[in-house]
Design goal:
Mean pLDDT of chain B: 84
Main location (chain B): membrane
Number of helices of chain A: 6
Strand content of chain A: 5-15%
Subcellular location (chain B): Cell membrane; Membrane
Number of strands of chain B: 0
Shape of chain A: elongated
CATH topology of chain A: Alpha-Beta Plaits
Radius of gyration of chain B: 20 Å
Keywords (chain B): Cell membrane, Membrane, NAD, Oxidoreductase, Quinone, Translocase, Transmembrane, Transmembrane helix, Ubiquinone
Oligomer: heterodimer
Strand order of the largest sheet of chain A: 2-3-5
Distance between the termini of chain B: 58 Å
CATH architecture of chain A: 2-Layer Sandwich
InterPro entries (chain B): NADH_UbQ_OxRdtase_su1/FPO, NADH_UbQ_OxRdtase_su1_CS
Number of strands of chain A: 5
Number of helices of chain B: 11
CATH class of chain A: Alpha Beta
Mean pLDDT of chain A: 86
Low-confidence stretches of chain A: none
Number of domains of chain B: 2
Helix content of chain B: 55-70%
Order of helices and strands of chain B: HHHHHHHHHHH
Radius of gyration of chain A: 25 Å
Organism (chain B): Thermosulfurimonas marina
Largest sheet of chain A: 3 strands, antiparallel
Number of domains of chain A: 1
Order of helices and strands of chain A: HHEHEEHEEHH
Largest interface: A-B, 15 and 13 residues
Strand content of chain B: under 5%
Structural class of chain A: alpha+beta
């Protein structure tokens, strides 16, 4: 090491110059509750079931694919057949958000784009039940979320990247947003 | 009655002046903590306190109120008397030094002829508070902090005193007001130019003396949790903080009087007699904070090495050169 540099403490002077320079730069702090950063598209936040704008009901067809693919097994579905129309009706669709790992597989696998992880993230609860979403809660989550969004809304996970268009189920292929 | 009043008047004036000085100093200490947090925050590209009051200006008051309402815990095995006494020793020793500092030509609380000695004595006394608190807490971390403080004080006290000898030689006095007058009369106006080595040694050892980064080994959060005051809580903890910042203010004030020309400035500011003193004081306080935001902590052996092998020989050489110049020039 150069003795002159040691005597005149150039390294320390360099450090002091750096901190002085930084003092006049803009702070990076985000004043969170007052100031929010925009959420990245496809942020995996609170769960919701898409409410079909035509029928006003959930789009889910009760195929159970989401329940099967879910790695943390937090989706519980019960279906029954309507005796008159012989159609499958979703009687119960629950997501236990506290067990969810937010992998987003359910939205990728859903053939009708019925389940979605919304970009809403401020949903702390005080009790476990607050974060146990049943079908009504999930639909309500959707209503709360969609009013904040531009229509038509299309979640990036609804068309998983890397899978050729031709191998997607038909409703997913045709989907253009809600 | 009138005679009694007349005889008591000087004392009353003195008490009044002391109160004014104390209140002003306390305000300075409180807002040094605020300035420190704010400046270090900005240097780290954060905002610093900004919630209490406009721009966080009431933060120090909120801190004091919080500390006052906290529980005052005394550890079971502690030496109670010393435990209670230690923060007071630190604080009183730190604050008393202010009395001999000439803030202005006509404002010196105690114009003693050995002002510099008083300050040196009191600043080494304040480390007794640190050492005693480390011992009285009956905790290993606190004890280690206290030991480090004593070793550090021994080595840096010497360097600091020696660095001031050059100033004494040049001014020919130990009275701080005399030193300032001698400075303004000298050709350089401030002693920081001819006594540059003394100034450097003084600044470094003053940082070590007040236990601040990069020489904050007695309290080293990362190794000793909080060092000597780890067992303190509530307002006693606050007193240690107060003492540290008082030490900082006093050391900066001494540097201003001994090296930077005290109250004298390039021109008179009408109506503000303390203007230049305060400006210089704030610059030095900013320097302390700036150094704290920049440098990492010294290792213990490096600290001792710096004190004994660099600073003391440097200040001795400085004394020698100053003395010879004084003799022949």
């Amino acid at each position: 090491m150069n003795p002159l540099r040691t005597i005149f403490l150039t390294e320390i002077a360099k450090g002091l110059a750096l901190t002085l320079r930084k003092m006049f730069s803009r702070p990076v702090t985000v004043q969170y509750p007052e100031e929010k950063k925009p959420v990245a598209p496809g942020f995996r936040g609170r769960h919701a079931l898409v409410r079909d704008p035509e029928t006003g009901r959930e789009r889910c067809i009760g195929c159970l694919r989401c329940a099967k693919v879910c790695p943390s097994r937090c989706i519980y579905i019960e279906t029954e057949r309507d005796p008159e129309t012989r159609r499958l009706v979703v009687k119960r669709y629950d997501i236990e958000a506290l067990r969810c790992v937010f992998c987003g597989y359910c939205e990728e696998v859903c053939p009708v784009n019925a389940v979605v992880l919304t970009e809403f993230y401020e949903y702390a609860g005080e009790r476990r039940e607050d974060l146990y979403f049943d079908k009504e809660r999930l639909l309500q989550n959707w209503d709360e979320f969609i009013v904040t969004q531009k229509r038509p809304y299309f979640n990036p996970y609804w068309k998983p990247r890397g899978i050729p268009e031709s191998r997607l189920p038909a409703p997913k292929r045709k989907a253009e947003g809600v | 009655m009138e005679a009694i009043l007349k005889s008591a008047l000087p004392t009353l004036i003195l008490i009044g002046e002391a109160l004014v000085l104390l209140v002003v100093a306390l305000l300075h200490v409180a807002y040094t903590t605020y300035a420190e947090r704010k400046i270090i925050g900005r240097m780290q590209q954060r905002l610093g306190p900004n919630r209490v009051g406009p721009r966080g200006l009431l933060q120090p008051i909120a801190d004091v109120l919080k500390l006052l309402t906290k529980e005052d815990i005394v550890p079971l095995g502690a030496d109670k008397t010393l435990f209670y006494l230690a923060p007071l020793i630190s604080l009183v020793a730190g604050a008393t030094s202010l009395a001999v500092i000439p803030v202005w030509e006509k404002f010196v609380l105690a114009n003693v002829n050995v002002g510099l000695l008083v300050i040196l004595a009191l600043s080494s006394l304040s480390s007794y508070g640190v050492i005693l608190s480390g011992w009285a807490s009956n905790s290993r971390y606190a004890f280690l902090g206290g030991l480090r403080a004593s070793a550090q004080v021994i080595s840096y006290e010497v360097a600091m005193a020696l660095s001031l000898v050059g100033v004494m030689l040049m001014a020919g006095s130990m009275n701080l007001a005399e030193i300032v007058r001698a400075q303004t009369a000298s050709s350089f106006k401030i002693y920081a130019i001819p006594q540059i080595i003394g100034f450097f040694v003084f600044m470094v050892s003053a940082i070590a003396e007040t236990n601040r980064v990069p020489f904050d080994l007695p309290e080293a959060e990362t190794e000793l949790v909080a060092g000597y005051f780890v067992e303190y809580s509530g307002i006693r903890f606050g007193l240690f903080y107060l003492a540290e910042y008082f030490g900082m203010v006093v050391m900066s004030a001494v540097a201003v009087t001994c090296f930077l020309g005290g109250w004298a400035g390039p021109f008179e500011v009408p109506g503000l007699p303390f203007f230049w003193f305060l400006v210089k004081l704030y610059v030095l306080l900013f320097f302390y904070i700036w150094v704290r935001a920049t440098l990492p902590r010294y290792r213990y052996d490096q600290l001792m090495g710096l004190g004994w092998k660099v600073l003391i020989p440097l200040s001795l050489a400085n004394i020698l050169v100053t003395g010879l110049l004084k003799l022949w020039v």
